[in-house]
Amino acid sequence: MATAVLHYVAAAMSDRGRKRPSNEDAFGFSVEAGVFVVCDGMGGAAAGEVASSLAVDKFLHLLAGQGQNGSAPMPGAAEQAIAAANDAVFSRAQQNKRLNGMGTTLVALAVHESRVWILNIGDSRCYRLRAGTLEMMTQDHSLVEEQVRLGRMTRSEALRSPYKNVITRAVGTQAQVTPDVLQLDAEAGDLFLLCSDGLTRELSDEVISSVLATDAPLDDLCARLVDSAKKAGGHDNITCLLVRALV
Predict the structure, then answer these.
(1) DSSP 99
(2) Residue 140 domain-assigned?
(3) Is residue 148 part of a domain?
(4) Domain limits for position 70
(5) Quick one: pLDDT at residue 244?
(6) Closest of 113, 110, 92, 117 to residue 102, by C-alpha
C-alpha cells in the first residue's frame, strides 16, 4: 500500500496522422485538479470532432471543478461527469440530424494523492509503466476484443479482422452508458499513458514500452510515440497523454 504523498506532472500530444483529413481525437487535463482525459470521436462529416471535444469539455469541466474545490475525485463523481458528457453528446446529436449517430470513446484518469481511478468506454486505452513493466489497465469495448476474450479469435486474427473498428460501447450513441472503473494506488515513478487506438493500432506494447522507458521529458516521450506511430503508417488520428507520479 502506497503511503507517500504524490504529485503529478503531465504532457500530451495529438496528431491527425498521415491518412485522415482531420483530427477527431481530443484531450484535456488539469494537473491541479488531478483529472486527465482522452476521447476518440466517430461519426460522419465533422461529427466525430464535435463528439470528442464536447465529451472532453463536459467531463473535464465538471470533474476538475470538484477537484479544485478540494474534494477527491471519487468514482461516483467521475461517473456522474461521464453521464453528463454522454447526455451532452447524445442530446446534441438528437438536435442536429447531420450529427445523428455520433459518439466517442473516453479514457480518463482521476488522481488524489496516491489514489488513482481509471475509467474507460470504447477502445481508447490506459497503460501503466511501473519498474520497467508495461501493463494495459483497461479492456477494449470492441467486437474483436470481445471475441478474443471469449477464445473465438486469436490476437493476430483480431488485428486483421475487417471488424476491428467496431466498438461495442461509446459515449453519446445511447441515452445511457456505463464505464469500466478501476481503482488502484500509485507509486512514485509510475507513468500512465492514455491514448487513442491510432497509437495502439500502429505500435506494439513492446515498442510503446521501449519508448516510455527512455529517460526523457514527457513532452519528448509524447513526440516520440506520435512520430513512431506515423512512421509505422499513421492510418488514424494519434493521441497520447502521459501522467507521471512523483514524490
Answers:
(1) G
(2) no
(3) no
(4) 7-131+169-246
(5) 98
(6) 92
**Residue 185, domain member (yes or no):** yes
Q: φ and ψ at 72, to 5 degrees? A: -70, 145
Give the C-alpha separation, 39 to 107, whole Å: 7
Distance CA 213, CA 83 (A): 35
**155 within a domain of the structure (yes/no):** no
Give the Å distances, CA to CA, from 167 to 162, 177, 241.
12, 13, 21
Cβ pair 235, 15 in contact under 8 A: no
Predicted local distance difference test score (pLDDT) of residue 157: 87
Reported as a single tens digit per residue, the pLDDT across 125-178 is 999 999 999 999 999 999 998 888 889 998 888 878 888 888 999 999 999 999
Largest CA distance in the chain: 52
The alpha carbon of 151 is separated from its chain's Cα centroid by a whole number of angstroms, namely: 26
CATH number of the domain enclosing 62: 3.60.40.10
Nearest residue to 109 (alpha-carbon basis) of 84, 82, 145, 141? 82
Cα distances (angstroms) measured from residue 55 to each of 38, 158, 221, 236:
9, 28, 26, 20
Single pTM value for the model: 0.94
Residues whose CB falls within 8 Å of the CB of residue 76, separated by 6 or more in sequence, listed in order: none
| Average pLDDT, rounded, for the chain | 92
Name the domain count of the chain.
1
The count of other CB atoms within 10 Å of the CB of residue 14 is: 20
pLDDT confidence of residue 71: 53
Q: Is the pLDDT of residue 216 over 90?
A: yes
